[in-house]
Amino acid sequence: MLRLNIAKASQAFFEDSLSATDLCKACLKRADFVRPLNPFVNVTKEKSLRQSEESSRRHKKGESRSILDGIPIAVKDNFCTVGVPTTCGSRMLVDFVPPYNATVVERLENAGAVVIGKTNLDEFAMGSGTVDSVHGPTFNVWGSSLPYTVGGVKRHPCDQQPRISGGSSGGSAVAVATGACFAALGSDTGGSTRNPASYCGIVGLKPTYGRVSRHGLIPLVNSMDVPGILTRSVSDAANVLNVISGCDPLDSTTVTEESPQVVLGDQLNLCGLTVGIPREYHCPGLHPEVLQAWTEVAQLLEEGGANVKQVSMPHTDLSIVCYSVLNQCEVASNMARYDGLQYGHRADTNVSTEQLFADTRSQALGLVVRSRILTGNYFLLKSNYEKYFEQAMKVRRLIAEDFAAVWRDGVDLLLTPTTLSPAPPFNKFTSLSNREQCDTQDYCTQPANMAGCPAVSLPVCLSEDHLPIGLQLIAPNFCEQTLLSVALWLEKSLEFPQLELIDV
Ligand code: GLN
Q1: Residues 6+ positions from 6 with CB-CB distance below 8 Å
Q2: What are phi and psi of 72, to 5 degrees?
Q3: In Å, how far are 11, 48, 64, 196, 322 from 420, measured between CA atoms?
Q4: What is the pLDDT confidence band of residue 154, given thresholds at 50, 70 and 90?
């Protein structure tokens, strides 16, 4: 039952061949089984069982609230959940219990979804590995010592080094990939939903900036953060998107126009579709197997009737450096609220207020976070502001203009790698190399955040080491309908081999 898609599980509830309570119990059991990988920081057992029983009762009475009613979902631990700790993977917030729900959580619960727990992340979502959390790292299930089959074939456990899960939404990706839930919320500022989806062999959707409310998502870079969706299939991602999308009076950056629901049909004709292959995404460090997968999928789209052509996006390689300036400036300002006075950790200091701030922050924030605050404040100095922040804003505009130009040129979608390689081994991706690693692994995902475009990572094949390789589709703003329709077409054509845990 853990391998059904959302529509099939919902149908089974309707037909009374499955109960939401049994499904929730199976997910909780699986969550327990995969504990060695550390995807969850908190499994909300009692609450989820209660929610699933309420859902079962609704189904019995024929009063299902939506397709998500009774579906177990996990939430990244940087979304506020009323009454449930929200730690952001930081010592600063280990005891923080929000008094309100993030809008997306509220919408999921109102639709009847069962929130089974909160998932691990890099501290305050700063990272691409889920290696930097107060709760310890999250390991990838691919290459782990847990027994599993791939496409029905048993693989030998422990024949590889442990791999990173990707990040910063690594906990969400592993929870979904292992069947501990049917979907999970992530967040995506520079690739944090798409990157772990790619490493874990699942679907990761970053919606258009402004389509989904950020209210209650603890901010990293307000002008780029978007709630993301991690699922095992494209149709599941569409079903979750339809529930969480839409204007929110509590987030002034959500668009006021109604977001049309994404409706995925069975038949899609690619004739008339133009897919762009941006030349500049062929970057140094691109793994040959990723390049091969990219080439083969481009051919597949062409054979399916699409017009596939090379395009140029000349400012692509400026995206990471521009992001690192903007990220650190926004981080410096966002993190100012953690001063030990109103909530979060407070140092045991009574020398002076300044000393209290300094001790609190140095005790409770990790190295990556502290270094970004320091650098951000340097960029924001009066004497530096124009040279760094304003300059980066101009470069951001050029990157966004690259996208606008290809769309104007008649391109409907871009096809690119998601990450430059399959999941790196854990011992090569420590918190000390976090910055460097983000720079390489976020190369292809970051630009879409600069422009606000929707993008999806899709698992396409396995590497020689039997690790997933993902590719990314990017669409113009608010074109999730085209994005997910083509993603579904690819999903059907590629038949990516499913990972199945042997739950002993
Ligand atoms: N890796 C990037 C960073 O550390 C992006 C993270 C994200 O998307 N949340 O900032």
Answers
A1: 67, 68, 71, 182, 183, 231, 235, 236, 239, 240
A2: -75, 125
A3: 38, 37, 43, 12, 19
A4: confident
Task: State in Å: Cα 403 to ligand 1 middle.
Answer: 21
Residue 118 CA to ligand 1 centre (angstroms): 19
Q: pLDDT tens digits, residue range 51-71?
A: 999 999 999 999 999 999 999
Candidates 64, 105, 55; CA nearest to 82 is 105
Residue 363: what residue type?
Q
The answer to whether 24 and 74 are in contact (CB under 8 A) is no
Give the whole-angstrom CA distance, residue 87 versus residue 66: 30
What stretches of 154-273 show up as alpha helix (H) in DSSP?
Answer: 170-177, 194-200, 234-244
DSSP state of 245: B
Give mean pLDDT, residues 66-87. Answer: 98
Find out whether 240 and 183 touch, Cβ atoms under 8 Å.
Answer: yes
Catalytic residue flag (residue 352): no
Task: Note the pLDDT of residue 343.
Answer: 86
DSSP 251-300: BTTS-SSPPPPP---S----TT-EEEEEGGGS-TT--HHHHHHHHHHHHH
State pTM to two decimals: 0.97
Output the ligand 1 site: residues, CB below 6 A.
125-128, 168, 187-192, 220, 327, 438, 442
Does position 502 have pLDDT exceeding 80, yes or no? yes
